[in-house]
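Homework help thread (please don't just give me the answer)

Our assignment gives two proteins as sequence + structure token strings and asks us to describe the second one. The first is just a warm-up. Here they are:
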Amino acid sequence: MINEALRLIRVFHDLKQVELAERLGISKSHISEIEKGTKTPSLDLIEKYSQAFNLPMSAIMFFAEELPNAKSGEKVRSKIASKVIDILRFVEKKSDAEDAA
């Protein structure tokens, strides 16, 4: 889920992968692999996102844990994280539609 959250943070700020890569000092291909979920971001990289977008690390880390066998409280957390991702996707689609108009 963190890969999608990081992608949506980038999209929300209207940055292309190459622009974000330059800002974070990493390669565009590394950004791409993280957003696809083929690589896991390091804590150092999450800290760079936190600083670049002025977000608390804890807000980003909220999406880091996969909780398939979670206890009930953790299931609620996972459900909330999923809904936040859905909201960000909605904002992304709305922004894309407005840009196309």
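The one we have to describe:
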Amino acid sequence: MESVKRMPIVQQVVDKLKEYLFSGEIAVGDKLPVEKELCEQLGVGRGTVREAFRILEATGYVELRPGKGAFAARTSEIELGDVMQWFTEHEVETKDFLEVRMAIEPLSVRLAIERCSDEDVAQLEHIHKKFTAAVNSHDVPAISINDEKFHSAIVEFSRNQLLISISKQVEKHVKNFRSKTFYIPQNAANAIEPHQNILDAFKRRDAAAGERSMEEHLNLVVKDLEKSTIR
């Protein structure tokens, strides 16, 4: 018989917040209690609450609005059918955002490889290892969070402030996309090799290969989107 494992405090807060979301006391779009109130109610620090919100955002249960707080995005468990329906309803706008990513992310990779430091490459490798581990353990929140970190880091390494600004503008919808797509295990698995190819290009300082690998990665994301829609 296996020993009893203590649940991490952040996961306990996530579960408590999901209980509240599913309780019938709150509707989609309603604002959740502020951080200070939740800290007092749950007996935890602000860092714990923020990490719990981040996990709930990564899995599509909560929407975080800068300067305004956290809002309910779902009030029931996410099922695969819900994910497929979301892709169908948002197919056109999601493709629009993917087209923008196709324009800015290959360019970001090329500039990043030309300008990055050894420390930047080490950071990217660390993120990729965490992403791969999350995929292998089917940890959807960690998959989403580390996928975002991987792509955001590359844009930051470009040192191009306009690219960084544009990327942040599209990030809200990309968060919504990530919170759904990685519920489909194959979509998550399909990202491991492209991420590795991009990382390898960074290690070799091969900007052309990095740009090409990012294009191939995003083309595969588009194909995954098409497979995920209900026809």
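TA reply:
I won't write it for you, but here's a hint about the kind of observation we're looking for: The two ends are 47 Å apart (CA to CA).
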